[in-house]
Amino acid sequence: MGAVICAALGVDTDLTLIYQLFALLLCLIVFSRLTLSLRRPRVSVKRRLPRYATAGEPFEYYIEVANEGDQLENDLTLIDNPKVRAPTIEQFRSEREPGEETRNAYDRWLGFHRFMWLQRINTGIAVKQQAVPEIVLKSRASVKFEALPLRRGVVQFTSITVLHPDPLGLNYGITNFADAQQLLVLPRRYHIPANFELAGGRHFQPGGINATWSIGESDEFVSLRDYRDGDSMRKIHWPSTARRQKPVVKEYQDEYFVRQGLVLDTASEHADVLEEAVSVAASFALRLGNADSMVDLLYLSRKPEIVTSGRGNTNVNHQLEALAGARRTNLPIGDLAELALRQAPLLSGCIVVLCDWCDERKSLVEALRNQGLPIRVLLVVRDGPPPGIPAYVHVLRAGNVAEGLMQL
């Protein structure tokens, strides 16, 4: 910038000597650029991400820098580059930046600040650049990064940039290293009161132990008996079959245990309400999940989905992963009601998280209540609760969900 100003002011060399300063600055700039091209750091980089992060909660990770050259490397700076995602036209039109109403009329009309806010949210993470300590010959250094996930879902990293200054400190050289990775950001979770209990005790599960285990079969059987037509080959007890010279199968007993349902409504028209509903569902999935019971997560995606955790099925992390990728669905609420009613005979109790209140959602809740199933209904709203809400519906206002859950 100084060289440009001096060039403009020193056009007439008869009136001023500023052109001499321009010549000096130009020489310094040329020297700076030449040294950057002649001296590039010989390093390699490797990012080490955690398996999960949580939306809205800062976390730390490391990038390892290895000196592969024959001299000391210092004054390096690392920039980690997530994949930048611009908002779609539909998203730009439907969503609003928090506090946008306080901006002046021109900013609201232009929408620049809204565009940048949506781009940051879509990118999904904020990472600050970090300085690299001195790295001696053939050694390594781990650089700690602090990052803040801005949303749930998958965050993609594309490359790592290494900045190195010239000897005069006027310019930085840029070296990019391709290092594509992705990080799964789980939904934000809220604290559920310790005294919260979902009504409903142990419930009969048809099919016995085998019906509750999705990975292999249990070794705990009740007795052995002779093979009958129609028995599964997987139930054959081979040592007894060899001794008796005829097929013998293992017999299992039917079991009673707690199996709870978690129904999530993903048909919200408001992005902030949907995010809060997903966070509420994730909070209850974590609260209800344990090794002695089962939890069925029911929601609509491209199709009706059930994700079960506990008693030999997947653990609660798989439910959190499913919730991390949950998106607004265009399927009717009737599909969710059909799925919930089909699963209801197996359940001991049920939690229903809704994003709105209408006749279809009311029918869903009433149908579950008519099954004699103990349920708790939570309704997430943007403003005040709509009229005609039954007394058994617990209303949670978006932005104050934590306080609302503490009143359960």
Number of domains: 4
Strand order of the largest sheet: 16-15-14-17-18-19
Strand content: 25-35%
Please give the number of β-strands: 19
In CATH, what is the homologous superfamily of the largest domain?
von Willebrand factor, type A domain
Sequence stretches where pLDDT stays below 50 over 5 or more residues: 201-219
Structure description:
- The radius of gyration is 31 Å and the shape is flat.
- The protein contains eleven helices and 19 strands.
- With 408 residues, the protein is α/β, with parallel strands linked by helices.
- A six-stranded mixed β-sheet has the order 16-15-14-17-18-19, with helices on both faces. A five-stranded mixed β-sheet has the order 2-9-8-4-6.
- Mean pLDDT is 84; it is low at 201-219.
- The chain starts with a helix and ends with a helix.
- It has helices at 2-9, 18-38, 89-94, 105-110, 112-123, 238-244, 271-288, 316-324, 333-343, 359-370, 401-405; strands at 43-48, 52-54, 59-67, 76-82, 125-127, 130-132, 140-149, 153-165, 172-186, 203-205, 223-226, 248-251, 255-257, 259-264, 294-300, 304-309, 349-354, 375-381, 393-397.
- It has four domains: 2-38; 43-85 and 124-186, Immunoglobulin-like, CATH 2.60.40.10; 210-253, no CATH class; 256-405, von Willebrand factor, type A domain (Rossmann fold).
